[in-house]
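Below is a filled-in request sheet from our internal design queue. Each sheet records the structural input a requester submitted and the sequence that came back. We keep these sheets so that new team members can see what a complete request looks like end to end.

REQUESTER: design group, bay 2
PRIORITY: normal
MODE: inverse folding
CHAIN LENGTH: 421
BACKBONE (tokenized):
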């Protein structure tokens, strides 16, 4: 495929921005290719600067559940833009969006709109610490919750000690209160609570892990987290930045029937615009300024363009819940195609799919990282050369949108089938 315009742009981009990108994964480092510069997108396609039209399963890392440039969403955003881009004042649209979110997720009794998933999780953790008066937090290895300092952490030398920074520029003291558990491993969490129980402000988790590839919660795991956090008075935070409105209107908390104390949302809720949310129990959220002493703020929080895109997106999903059934059926075709190759472990829930190049079931961080990333890189090239745009990393997810045509799904299944060759 011709990529000369992308190559040329990339050469300039690297002279302006670190790695030529504004988010590291886009640099395609782990698949050893020059990133494609996308010119526009429509439906289930992205079109790059060389005119290559590719079937898109990145979907901007999740927001694109309706497909690109959905006519209703675009129309409402264009209308809104004519009324001004930001006022820095309360608007009716913030009220409308907050109400729609709470209709779908009643556990979010009070919520705050922010600008990114990172900001939402960082703020939810601060609210949990302010509410409990405790300092320690638990996160699971392999779960990603944005790039705030206290969450860029890896397990310390001993399992029952605070984490150590997993990024330069993060002082060790900033991760000392972050305890590391293992996803789907009840014993690691029990041990941390036995040792630190009443010091633990919150446990934050992706109810379905989608940042080590897709790893599903094992039977009872989420219910266990609910029980143990109640027992110790710890705030349970579901990071639903990916699963929110992806697994259904009620997200993972409805799917698994486990109600967290706080929830974070992003991606779909903003319809592709910079908008994220944190919220939950009234008594926790009333600790947040201006009501309480937990400070959090944002110039563009709840801005009229992002709230317009969010309202339009949720309105389409709420008016057409059958979209989720169709997403299920389309994604099942792809999952079956991967399984038939006999070369891929597939984890799937709804329209969220993870394809691992390993010969053993992937149920946790260790089995996820056992995947053969070189084989993934070859797979990435095979898909791209056949007109299919998947995540340039083994440890991301594949997303299907309502705009994926049955024809493009079948085409993708055939290309996957050729993998075996
Ligand atoms: P943002 O700050 O990127 O909006 O959200 C951070 C975040 C929080 N929680 C979860 C579960 C997330 O998946 C994310 C961000 N997801 C990644 C992709 N896995 C964003 C893509 C990127 O970093 O470029």
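RETURNED SEQUENCE:
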């Amino acid at each position: 495929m011709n990529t000369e315009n992308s190559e040329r742009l990339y050469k300039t981009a690297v002279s302006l921005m670190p790695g030529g990108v504004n988010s590291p994964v886009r640099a395609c480092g782990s698949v050893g290719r020059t990133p494609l510069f996308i010119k526009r997108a429509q439906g289930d396609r992205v079109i790059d600067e060389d005119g290559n039209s590719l079937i898109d399963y990145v979907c901007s890392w999740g927001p694109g559940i309706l497909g690109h440039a959905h006519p209703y969403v675009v129309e409402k955003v264009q209308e809104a833009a004519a009324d001004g881009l930001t006022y820095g004042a309360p608007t009716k649209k913030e009220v409308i969006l907050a109400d729609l979110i709470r209709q779908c997720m009643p556990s979010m009794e009070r919520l705050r709109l922010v600008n990114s998933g990172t900001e939402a999780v960082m703020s939810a953790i601060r609210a949990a610490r302010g509410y409990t008066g405790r300092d320690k937090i638990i996160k699971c290895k392999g779960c990603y919750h944005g790039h705030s300092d206290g969450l860029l952490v890896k397990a310390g030398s001993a399992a029952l000690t605070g984490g150590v920074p997993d990024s330069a520029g993060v002082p060790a003291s900033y991760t000392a209160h972050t305890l590391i558990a293992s996803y789907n491993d009840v014993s690691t969490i029990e041990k941390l609570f036995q040792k630190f129980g009443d010091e633990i402000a919150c446990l934050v988790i992706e109810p379905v892990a989608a940042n080590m590839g897709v790893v599903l919660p094992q039977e009872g795991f989420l219910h266990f987290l609910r029980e143990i956090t109640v027992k110790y008075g710890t705030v349970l935070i579901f990071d639903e930045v990916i699963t929110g409105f992806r697994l259904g209107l009620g997200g993972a908390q409805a799917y698994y029937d486990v109600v967290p104390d706080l929830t974070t949302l992003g991606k779909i809720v903003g319809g592709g615009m910079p908008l994220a949310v944190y919220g939950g129990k009234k008594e926790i959220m009333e600790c947040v300024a201006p009501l309480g002493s937990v400070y959090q703020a944002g110039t563009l929080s709840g801005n009229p363009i992002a709230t317009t895109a969010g309202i339009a997106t949720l309105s389409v999903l709420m008016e057409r819940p059958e979209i989720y059934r169709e997403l299920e059926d389309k994604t099942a075709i792809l999952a079956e195609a991967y399984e038939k190759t006999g070369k891929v472990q597939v984890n799937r829930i709804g329209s969220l799919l993870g394809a691992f190049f390993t010969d053993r079931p992937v149920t946790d961080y260790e089995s996820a990282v056992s995947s053969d990333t070189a084989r993934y890189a070859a797979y990435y090239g095979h898909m791209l050369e056949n007109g299919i745009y998947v995540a340039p990393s083994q440890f991301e997810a594949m997303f299907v949108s309502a705009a994926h045509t049955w024809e493009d799904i079948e085409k993708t299944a055939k290309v996957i089938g050729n993998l075996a060759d």
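SHEET NOTES:
- The radius of gyration is 21 Å.
- The chain has 14 helices and 16 strands.
FILED BY: M.R.
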